[in-house]
Each structure stands twice: as C-alpha cells, then as structure tokens.
C-alpha cells in the first residue's frame, strides 16, 4: 500500500519537505562546522523561494501552506537559533558541560528566537492575507542575515546575541515589510546563490553583499520601499 501522500503532494510540496531536511542538516553540522551550517541555512532560503515559484507555475495543493510553515520551523527557527548558540558559546568560551550565566543567557535568547519564529509562522498562516506586504520581519530574512553574517566573518558573540534578541521582537512586530519587486528579488537571489557557492571569493564579497542587502531591506524598506507588483520569485517569502 502506497503512503497516503502519494498523488496528493505537488512538486512544490516536495521542495518544501526537502527544505525541512536541509534545516535539520544545518543543526547537525553546526557544532562541527558553523560556516557550512550557515551555507545550508542559506540554501534552505533558496529552496523556500523555489517552492513558491513552482507552486505558481504548476499549481499548489491544499496542504502546501501548512507544509511551508512546518518546514520553516526547522530551517528558519531552530537552525538559525542553533547557529547563533554555537557562535556565541564558542566566542565566549562557554563550557557546555557546566551551567553558567552565559550559557543560560545564550540558551534563553536562542530559545526565545525559536518561540517567536514559531509564533510568527503560525500568525502568518492564519492572519497575513495581504498580497503586497507582511507584518513583522520574515523568518527567512532573519535566518539569512544571521547566516550571511557568519559567512562574512561578522561573528562577535555579543553582537550575534544582540541581533538574535532583536529578531525576537522584530518577527512578531507590527512593522510592515513590503514584497520585493521582481527585479530586486532577482538581484537578491543571485547574490544569495553566490554567497553559498563561493563564500570566500574576493574577501568574502558575496556574503558581505548579501548581509548588506538584507540589512538595507530590514531597516529601510518599511518606509522607503513599497512594491507595486508582487514578486514572482518568492525570495524570502513572507513567512
């Protein structure tokens, strides 16, 4: 007897499910090679955009939005939180076998990041119905900024911890983030792919470029950028 999902899931759903697996791999790898784990998180963000393209091209399924949010918990809630935890504890020289204030603080902030990301993903699925913007920073973008920062070598432990804490609020804020125009989404997608494929070329140019673009969108887009047409690429999605 075939599994019940055979014939009910589409191509986009298969990419979404693969995205969740990539997030798990990032968690597994993070404690051995945090830079490779950061590249996997960025790869998951590419997959998150790809499933949107495939859903529009070939049609979605009723289960698609639910699978998307579930996959995002793995790739853009748990995985980036683990990345931040590893960078901070390594940077501060925290002994993971001994309870300390630094360990509790880092673990608490990263756990809160997961909680707020899950809350945002659930609220997005239930309440965000606008076609041209979303409320609160996208979990995909938060994960992308953390991953790009690690690949760029911007890994001061207190800075990473502070940024992770800031995302805890930004993900559930009422700040409106507009969808990217198609041309801008394409630029972001190309830089994103190059940051994964050749992160060390020319003094880590592409991770720095991705980090700069991500931060520019995070800080400037709510007031200075409003798309008049939806992006077909799905870069960063809305969740």
TrEMBL record:
InterPro entries: CDP-OH_P_trans, CDP-OH_PTrfase_TM_dom, CDP_ALCOHOL_P_TRANSF_CS
Matching PROSITE patterns: CDP_ALCOHOL_P_TRANSF
Record's keyword annotation contains Transferase: yes
One of the record's GO molecular function terms: transferase activity
Keyword terms, alphabetized: Membrane, Transferase, Transmembrane, Transmembrane helix
Record-stated family: Belongs to the CDP-alcohol phosphatidyltransferase class-I family.
Name the record gives this protein: Protein sorting system archaetidylserine synthase
């Amino acid at each position: 007897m075939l599994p019940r999902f055979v014939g009910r899931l589409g191509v986009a759903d298969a990419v979404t499910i693969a995205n969740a697996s990539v997030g798990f791999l990032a968690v597994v790898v993070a404690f051995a090679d945090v830079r490779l784990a950061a590249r996997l998180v960025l790869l998951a963000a590419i997959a998150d955009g790809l499933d949107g393209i495939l859903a529009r091209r070939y049609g979605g399924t009723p289960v698609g939005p639910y699978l998307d949010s579930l996959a995002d918990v793995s790739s853009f809630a748990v995985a980036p939180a683990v990345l931040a935890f590893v960078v901070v504890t390594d940077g501060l020289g925290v002994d993971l076998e001994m309870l300390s204030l630094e360990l509790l603080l880092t673990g608490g902030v990263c756990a809160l990041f997961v909680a707020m990301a899950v809350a945002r993903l659930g609220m997005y699925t239930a309440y965000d119905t606008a076609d041209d913007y979303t409320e609160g920073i996208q979990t995909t973008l938060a994960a992308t900024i953390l991953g790009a920062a690690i690949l760029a070598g911007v890994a001061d432990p207190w800075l990473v911890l502070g940024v992770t804490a800031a995302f805890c609020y930004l993900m559930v804020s009422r700040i409106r983030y507009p969808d990217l125009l198609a041309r801008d989404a394409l630029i972001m997608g190309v830089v994103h792919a190059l940051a994964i494929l050749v992160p060390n070329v020319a003094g880590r140019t592409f991770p720095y470029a991705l980090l700069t673009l991500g931060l520019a969108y995070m800080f400037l887009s709510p007031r200075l950028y409003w798309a008049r047409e939806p992006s077909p690429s799905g870069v960063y999605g809305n969740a």
